[in-house]
Amino acid sequence: MNSESQSTSKLVPQHVAIIMDGNGRWAKKKGKIRTFGHRAGVKGVRASVSFSLKNNIKVLTLFAFSSENWNRPQEEVGVLMELFKMVLSSEVKKLHKNNVKLRVIGDTSRFDKKLVAQIQDAEALTENNDGLILNIAANYGGRWDILNATKALAEQVKEGSLECEQIDEAMLNRYTCCADLPELDLLIRTGGETRISNFLLWQVAYAELYFTDTYWPDFNEDAFQLAIDNFADRQRRYGMTGEQVS
Ligand code: IPE
Ligand code: IPE
Ligand code: MG
Fold it and tell me: Which 3 state secondary structure label does DSSP give 149?
């Protein structure tokens, strides 16, 4: 490919993940309590789903609650759980109408019965949709994901159905939460911090990273477009030289 065609071939991500951060600081800036920011953050979720639908993104993975977020004040955790329930009951029908397949990744066993039932119902309702896959990471941790996969393989070795030497990256990948999804292309973090916070550790290996100072409640379709434009001009080299991949 010559330099002219390289400059015209723009990259389009299939799988985008977002660390939706900055709700608390957004609220504080407005003189409000942190949970006000979480409620406002629902706007950002709607905008990013709508943008993904319009732009043919195949998978959108949203970090809604990390395995470490249980360590926040109990009241804040309570509001987040209630909000999760509220959003599920108000948005699922609309998602279904838009052919969205909703899935939740993470250890849902720690959630209350009502929330677990709501998650199961939403997943069942949208199971056969083949538009956007909306992956919600809830009580998710990247280390937990890798540990689960490791344990599943260790069990098979213990039973004698698997030899240690047979284990390779592809096999371990099959036991992680995103096994059946396209590779993660772009990871966006809002809110100004430049860290991964135990999100998709295994999957992030060759993802492109994009950090923005925009707080999550202000993350709208224009802000998403900026991230996509930034991604479009990158060169993904996977360890090779620029000349090899162009
Ligand atoms: C992200 O916003 C939402 C969750 C982690 C659930 P934060 O609540 O972390 O907002 P900041 O980072 O404190 O501003
Ligand atoms: C990461 O944000 C988790 C979610 C966005 C759900 P945090 O606000 O919890 O991350 P840290 O604590 O700043 O690393
Ligand atoms: Mg935060």
Answer: helix
